[in-house]
Amino acid sequence: MRAAGRAVLGVTAVAVVGVAGLGAYNLYTGLTGGEKGPGHDGAVTASEVRETAGKFLAAWADQNDMRAAQLTNDAESAVAALSGYRKDGHVSKLTLKAGQPHGTRVPFDVTADISFEDSHSTWTYGSELSVVRGRTTGRPLVDWRPAVLHPKLTAERPALRTGTADSVSIKVVDRDGKELTKDRYPSLGPVLTELRTRYASATGGASRVEVWAAGASGKPTTTLHVVAKGKPGTLHTTLDAQVQSRAEKAVAKRTGASVVALKPSTGEVLAVANSDRDEFNPALQGATAPGSTFKIVTSAALLESGKVTPGRAVPCPKTTSYQQGMIFHNVEDSENPAATFAQDFAASCNTAFVSLAGDLPDSGVADVAQDVFGIGLEWHVGVQTFDGSVPTGGGDDKAAALIGQGRVQMNPLTVASVSATAQTGTFHQPVIVPRSLIGEQTATAVRSLSPAAAGQLRAMMRLTATSGTAARAMSGLTGDIGAKTGSAEIDGQPTTNAWFTAYRNDMAAAAVVVKGGHGGDAAGPVVRDVLTTHG
Predict the structure, then answer these.
(1) Bridge partners for 409 per DSSP
(2) What is the mean pLDDT of residues 460-478?
(3) Distance CA 196, CA 200 (A)
(4) Strand, helix or coil at 331?
(5) Per residue in 33-44, pLDDT tens?
(6) Rounded to two decimals, what is the model's pTM?
(7) Which residues 6+ apart lie within 8 Å of 12 measured at CB?
(8) Are 262 and 382 in contact (CB under 8 A)?
C-alpha cells in the first residue's frame, strides 16, 4: 500500500518533474554512472540540488525504493537500506518535508508512522542529505550514507529496526498480593523463572517496543524512538509469603533439605523451599524412596481391605521376610511382640507391615495410591513436577513397596499431598497458580477414601503425632494434627534419608533431609517450623 506523503522543498513548492524519465537509468547505471554526458562538469548548481533532493524524497515517501536508490551515487546500498527502513522499521506511512538548502546540503523533516503488532506511534525527527555530481555520469545525485535515513545511523550500525526491546516485566505475587523475588526468597528462583516463562501472556503485561540502530547482527545498539513503553504484568500464585519465608529459614539450617507446604482443602501450594539452590528443584522434581511416610498409603489400602483394624494385634518382630525373600528389619532392630496395627504405624514398624503383604493383591497398594491419592496421575501444577510412581510388583518388590522402599519414588510435593488427602479423605491436585490459569485439566482421583478408613487413618496419624515417632517434633501443637515419620534406605548411601510429613488444621507439609538419619530428628523440625507459621 502506497503512502500519501510527498516532499515539499524550500519556501515555495517545487514541481517534481522528470520522475518518469528515471526508468531509463537502471540499477546498473546508478552504480557505474554509464558514460559521462556533456555539460555536467563542476559543482552542482542550486537548482540541481533542489530538483535532485525533491525527486529523491518524493520517491522515498512514495515507497518506490528502486527509483529513490537510482537517484543516489550508491544505488545497491541505498535500495537495501530504504527497503529495510520500511520493512524492518515497520514504517506504515512516511511524510518527508524538505527545508531550505544550504549549499549542497538539504535538511528535511521525517514523520514516520510505526506499526508493530498491537503498538502504534508517530515518530518525527530531522535528517539531512547532500547532493554531489556523479563521477562518471556527471549527473547530480544524492550522496548516499546511512545517516540519510537517520542522523544516528553509521557504517558500523547502518540498519534501522523496530521490535520488542525486552521481555515482559512480570511481578510475581503471593496469594495476598505481596511480591515474591529471588533475592528475598532464594529457593523460588527457578520457580519464578518458569512461572514467568509459562504465563507471560496471561499477566496483562506488554513488552517495550523501540526503534533502534542495529549493526550486522540486528541486535539493538542505540535506541532512536520508543513506540510503546510497555507495562509490567502481575502473576498471582497460591504461595504464602509468610509460609515461604519460614520454609526458607527452616531448610537453611540443614544441608540437603527440601520442604513443601499446601492447603489440604484445595491443594494450593503455600511454600516450596530447598537448601540446595540450583536449577533443579528436588522439592517438586525429586524422585526418591519416601520410606515409612508411604505407610499412610499402605495403611489406607489395608484398612479399606478390611483385613486389619487399628486395634488388631499385629506383632512387630525384629526381622521378617515375605515369601522366603529378603530379610526386612526395623530401625535399630526394635520390636514389640504385643503391638496393635495402630501402634505399628505410630512406631513405624517395618516388619509388621511386611507381614501383612499377603493380605493385599500385588496391585493393591499401587491401585489405592493412584485411585485415591492421585500418585502417578499426570498433574498440572503450574510448574514442572514429578508426580510420583508406585509400580505394581510381587515378591520382594511388593514387600518393599509397603514400607516406601524398592521402586516407590516420591518427593516432598507428593508426600505432602498424601498427608493432605489423608486428612480430608479426598485428593486435591496441588497447584501453584490459579487453576483457571493453568489451561489444562488438573488430575482427579477416581474416588475418595472410604469414610471408615479415613477416620481410622486420621486417628493413627494423630497417635503418631502425640505419642509416636513424630511426638517430639509435634510437641505442643494444637488443633487438628497428624503426622508420619520415615527413614529411607538408599543404595550406596550409609545414612538414611530423613522424611517427615504432617498436617495441622488446613496446612500439610512434607520434608526430606538427604542423609539426615531419623525422620523425626532431622526432617521433623523443618515441618514443625512451617506448620507454626500462623500460630
Answers:
(1) 389
(2) 97
(3) 5
(4) helix
(5) 433 444 456 899
(6) 0.75
(7) none
(8) no
